[in-house]
Amino acid sequence: MLTVMLQGRRVTDRVFSPAQLERLKASGAELRINPSDANPTPEEALRLIEGAEVLITSWGCPPLTAELLDRAPRLRAVLHAAGSVKPIATPELRSRGIPVTSGAAILGRGVGEFALCTTMMSLKKIALVSEAARREGWWAFRSDPLRNSIREMYGSTIGCIGGGNAGRHFLKLLRSFSVTALLADPTYTPEQARELGAELVPLEELLRRSDVVVVLAPELPSTYRMLDGARIGLMRDGATLINLARGSLIDEQALAEHLRAGRIHAVLDVLEQEPPGDGHPLRELPNVVLTGHIAGAVNNGLLEIGEFMADEWLRVRDGVPLAAAVPLERLDWLA
User: Fold this and answer.
1) Transmembrane segments in this chain: where (predicted)?
2) How far apart are CA 160 and CA 149, in angstroms?
3) Which CATH number fits domain 2-102+299-333: 3.40.50.720, 3.40.830.10, 3.30.450.20, 3.40.50.2300?
4) Residue 313: strand, helix, or coil
5) How, if at all, do strands 30-33 and 100-102 pair?
6) Which residues does residue 147 pair with via DSSP β-bridges, in sequence order?
7) Contact status, residue 161 vs residue 206, Cβ threshold 8 Å
8) Within this chain, domains 2-102+299-333 and 107-290 share the same CATH topology
9) Which helix (H) or strand (E) holds 286?
10) What's the CATH number for 107-290?
11) In this predicted model, what pLDDT tens digit does every residue of 109-152 receive, in sequence order?
């Protein structure tokens, strides 16, 4: 079964290990791998896709236009070895009914795990504690305002904005702790939230009640700067805002004003402009931790996507449904 890897070889080698490529070949895949390190040009994509029965795409691939799809009339599936399929999905792809899968669920698990990590570190005030321990010596058991502000998971209220792949996994992880989990997501019913161990509440209520607010919502026109100055102002004193979604979901100037007041803290994996320019207000504040867009897979974690794509390829070969088929008709709601 002719299987075309459209992305540049640099991406292929980061997502698929040699063992995974051999596994595909041993399972019956006739691999045609883009040999160029760079993203494929339109001309290269037309040549590569010729006759493909399975198409594997990833970061840097072009949209799958009618011109490209016409070159592969026997195409059975598109396996997107990356997160969002929006860069490649076109109306033509949807109209032809070609099933599409992606690595979004795999990346979402990693983001959910990082959400748990940053939640626990935020409650413990790790960044401020680390700096104080270096500056003032070991704390032992003495009491001071910073140490007195430390919280544990037990009895805390954790708010999750967005119940997609990352949000679902995060909420499942929270079930191992004695916390109150809140979810704000307009696509959920209260029953669906309860299945994840969470209480479905309006966004404003979540902000008022939570010790930690984790933003995991998709970047959509309706979510642009959904956390403006007024909503950030609803957060309780000492709470932490964690953004692992996209920078555009938060009004950064308003957030900076709240942070300068010293009332809340923030952990930001994403900013609206990446990398941020010199003098960006959120780079200078002591109550902000910036993690530089590492929430998802960065290095070895990418290989889990390759493993999952190999599993999906076997499902295509065997004529069984894809495990992570993307509902293209709901693309406007997806991250």
Assistant:
1) none
2) 22
3) 3.40.50.720
4) helix
5) unpaired
6) none
7) yes
8) yes
9) none
10) 3.40.50.720
11) 999 999 999 999 999 999 888 888 888 767 666 778 888 888 99
